[in-house]
Amino acid sequence: DVIVVPLSTQAGNYYGDRPLRDWQSAKLNAPTFIKAVLVTLEQQSILSVYGRLSDHDWKQVQDAMKDVLDV
Prior knowledge:
The protein is of the alpha+beta class and 71 residues long. The protein has one helix spanning 55-69; strands at 2-4, 7-8, 18-19, 33-34, 39-41.
């Protein structure tokens, strides 16, 4: 299994949600937000990879998960 974090173009005011600064370099089509929710999927459910997060945005994901998990 893999752990994924949902993304959305809709800004939410939920605890832990954060904007991606470098969404264009990640090959996303519009400004995108991290939804601070953990989801697990089976590896074979991942059909393709669209892009990669910048170091800055990856840190945003890590910080959001630390906030939500209170670690």
